[in-house]
Design goal:
The protein has 335 residues and is of the alpha/beta class. Helix content is 30%, strand content 24%. InterPro entries: KaiC-like_dom, P-loop_NTPase.
Length: 335
């Protein structure tokens, strides 16, 4: 064993390269002020180039308890994830929370909205008590609007908004990238790149798409495949910005032959397996390239402000839910 792997006769982990920060598999390329894995790294260091620590940008800890508990080392930042959920599993709330947690971390985010107009997309945040007005004002949030130009009478829609929606729309106006041809995959991709460039999103932040179902209604199936392939190759891989797209695919054969285009698939389901007469929500990672994940289902619930939280399958559902006779069952924080 080489001397640089020993300290006092005890084997140690290999040295890390002082340029790329990866382990040096053999003898290091020495230089007066450091150790390098290759001549390329040593020459780059001679030019005073220093790469950032890869752990700082190549992994994303989402801040969402059920998801992070299954992927303890973080999601690879160069991933395109499919969030596949049954109706009623709070898929849209999870997409919203992913953006909010990024903003909380001080990172930028982009939402691509096919399902709702920008004001309705933003209302999901306000409904949770998550105020995104500062993020809009400080240029940390963009909305790629793929909804408005699908309306037959856009002017009538804008005039029908109430005072609050009008205010939010005006506050967000500079943060909205409007797609005039949402049925054109390349046009949507161009708008997404425009939003990322405006926020200088490289090695930071994330993108959410709500949803592939709506995109599929606009595009032929092979064009959806092309869109996913293009943005994965031009955004996730070179920029290290993850994309999470929602779709109602659980229990169906809608995308089976296309699963390989996604780096990861997270399934959301409803089950009464553990608590008869109560349909519990569960989250599981079916696939995730580039990191380890726990092969199990996590039972979770959603609560405004708190977001999604996990609880054990052996927990009595009555300990998680309370019943409000005016509004039905509601989740209760019993931490």
């Amino acid at each position: 064993m080489s001397e640089h792997l020993r300290t006092g006769g005890t084997p140690q982990y290999p040295l890390q390269c002082d340029h790329c920060h990866y382990p040096i598999p053999g003898e290091p390329k020495e230089r007066g002020d450091g150790h390098y894995c290759s001549g390329s790294c040593r020459e780059a260091a001679d030019g005073e180039s220093t790469m950032p620590d890869p752990d700082a940008y190549k992994r994303v800890v989402t801040g969402i308890e059920p998801l992070d508990s299954l992927v303890p080392n973080g999601i690879p930042a160069d991933s395109f994830l499919l969030l596949s959920g049954d109706e009623g599993t709070r898929r849209s709330e999870l997409l919203t929370e992913l953006v909010w947690r990024a903003i909380e971390r001080g990172e930028p985010a982009v939402l691509v909205s096919f399902a709702d107009p920008p004001t309705a997309t933003l209302e999901r945040f306000f409904g949770n008590g998550w105020n995104v007005l500062p993020a809009l004002e400080t240029d940390r949030l963009r909305i790629v609007d793929c909804f408005t130009h699908r309306l037959s009478d856009r002017e009538a829609f804008l005039e029908s908004r109430n005072e609050w929606q009008t205010f939010v729309g005006e506050a967000a106006a500079d943060s909205i990238v409007t797609v005039e041809e949402p049925d054109d995959g390349p046009a949507v991709a161009d708008a997404l790149h425009e939003a990322l460039d405006a926020l200088e999103m490289t090695e930071t932040g994330l993108v959410t798409i709500d949803s592939l179902d709506e995109l599929g209604r606009l595009l032929q199936r092979d064009r959806v495949h092309d869109f996913v392939t293009e943005v994965r190759g031009t955004i996730c891989t070179p920029r290290y910005v993850p994309i999470v797209a929602g779709a109602t695919t659980a229990g169906s054969d809608k995308y089976p032959e296309d699963e390989y285009v996604f780096d990861g698939i997270v399934d959301l389901r409803l089950t009464d397996q553990f608590t008869p007469e109560t349909r519990l929500k569960q989250l599981g990672v079916r696939k995730l390239i580039g990191t380890q994940f726990l092969p199990q289902w996590i039972t979770y619930e959603y609560e405004p402000a708190r977001g999604l939280f996990a609880f054990g399958s052996s927990t009595d559902a009555r300990e998680v839910y309370d019943y409000d006779f005016g509004n039905g069952p509601r989740a209760v924080d019993r931490r």
